[in-house]
Amino acid sequence: MRAIAVACALIAAFTLPAFAGDAARGQETFKACAACHGDRPGDLGPSLIGVVGRVAGTREDFRYSGPMARAGFVWDEAHLGAFIHNPRSVVAGTRMPFDGLADDRDVEDVVAYLASRK
To answer: DSSP per residue over the chain, as a string?
Structure first.
């Protein structure tokens, strides 16, 4: 029984991600995004407070592009990560003028930060 427990622990140690998203680091990285995605009326992009769990393109106080309004998925961590990495690969035709973050750690950190903003 002990050998099985040790084997399971070793498997978990080598199959889990090397790091989880760091919300504090993500907040710093997000500062560049806040120019458009602030929390003020009239911002260029929608507020991202409470984005995790929201259906894409559904904030009533923002006029989305047609492709985003029709996307139909729920913003979960996987969708956010993919979108932050390469927005047009997730929603072709989005009008967001951002090419994405190339660094996987930056993406994970921003996702962790967004998930912490309720």
So the answer is: -HHHHHHHHHHHHHHS-S----HHHHHHHHTTGGGTS-SSTT-SS---TT-TTSBTT--TTS---HHHHT---B--HHHHHHHHH-HHHHSTT----------HHHHHHHHHHHHH--
pLDDT digits 0-9 by tens, 8-34: 443 444 433 444 899 999 999 999 999
Give CA–CA dist 53/78, Å, rounded. 11
CATH for 44 = 1.10.760.10
Residue 1 within any structural domain of the chain: no
CB-CB contact of 95 with 8 (8 Å):
no
On average, the pLDDT of the chain sits at: 87
- The larger pLDDT score, comparing residue 16 to residue 50, is at 50
